[in-house]
Write a structure and sequence with these properties.
The chain has 10 helices and 7 strands. By secondary structure, the chain is an alpha/beta fold. The protein has a 4-stranded parallel beta sheet with strand order 2-1-4-5, with helices on both faces. Strands 3-7-6 form a 3-stranded parallel beta sheet. Strand 1, helix 1 and strand 2 form a beta-alpha-beta unit. Helix 2 crosses helix 4 and helix 3 packs across helix 9.
């Protein structure tokens, strides 16, 4: 089964819609396709709760997001004394994979996304049983080409309905923090949210240095290893500005803006 990162929109041609993409994956051999944005929704709600219960109360000085493996690895390697401030929530890739395997225990799950670092994440001992393979958009396009699959020739009966606009927005820098902030504003009205985000490892290192010095207290801090976010990953097919525009439209046209407040209400549709 395939789990597809939200940055997929636009990656396989300007006229390729979600139905074309889903059907082409089936033609390639996948039995079902799910949105990784589902796991992002799960993470956004969990981290909204975490921020409100831990940071606004002063129990933690700040909260670092965890979905970008390059950012998390940078923090753990160079700022080991900040480990307690890194969110313990599963990354969207892992959260989605575990949700799939709860329903389909014998499934082989393939993560399809823009990020080369996800290959390293999937090889970790704690993740190996959840995510069986990682394929980038660039590699997937090569598979379509090798099989002679013209995406315009296929169309599935439906598009994706697993996730919300909040989770789909994770694909662009600032989108993770924005999703969490929107969940806090919706479900914890009146709570002040202080947002900071960094793009690129140099900026990430700078903001972690400030956090260590006590200058980011009270903040929700998002870090993205690639300038621009996931849409700028090493395994992408299109220019970053076009990808950002396509993701923004995908988010805007989502049937639901935010996930429900309670995690148990989030499930595969």
């Amino acid at each position: 089964m395939a789990e597809v990162a939200p940055a997929f929109v636009g990656q396989f041609g300007p006229n390729i819609n979600v139905r074309n993409f889903k059907a082409a994956l089936e033609e390639l051999g996948f039995s079902e396709t799910y949105e990784v944005a589902l796991g992002a929704d799960i993470g956004a709600i969990a981290e909204a709760h975490h921020y409100v219960n831990k940071v606004t109360t002063g129990e933690l000085p700040f909260l670092l997001t965890s979905c970008c493996p390059s950012w998390a690895m940078l923090a753990k390697k160079f700022f080991p004394d900040l480990i307690d401030q890194i969110s313990q929530e599963l990354t969207p890739m892992v959260a989605t994979a575990r949700t799939i395997k709860q329903e389909h225990p014998n499934a082989k799950v393939v993560f399809i996304g823009p990020c080369a670092a996800k290959k390293l994440e999937a090889s970790r001992r704690t993740v190996r049983s959840d995510v069986d393979f990682v394929v980038t958009f660039e590699e997937l396009q090569a598979m379509f080409d090798a099989k002679g699959i013209d995406l315009t020739a296929y169309e599935a009966e439906s598009s994706f309905h697993d996730a919300t606009g909040a989770g789909r927005g994770y694909a662009c820098a600032g989108g993770v923090a924005k999703a969490i902030e929107e969940c806090i504003n919706e479900y914890y009205p009146g709570t002040q949210v202080n947002i900071e985000h960094a793009e690129g490892l140099a900026e990430c290192k700078k903001i972690l240095t400030l956090a260590k010095a006590g200058r980011m207290n009270g903040c929700l801090i998002e870090g993205m290893g690639c300038p621009g976010g996931c849409v700028a990953g090493a395994g992408t097919n299109i220019p970053i500005p076009i990808a950002k525009k396509d993701v923004a439209a995908y988010v805007k046209n989502s049937s639901r803006a935010l996930p429900p407040k309670e995690l148990e209400e989030i499930e595969l549709k």
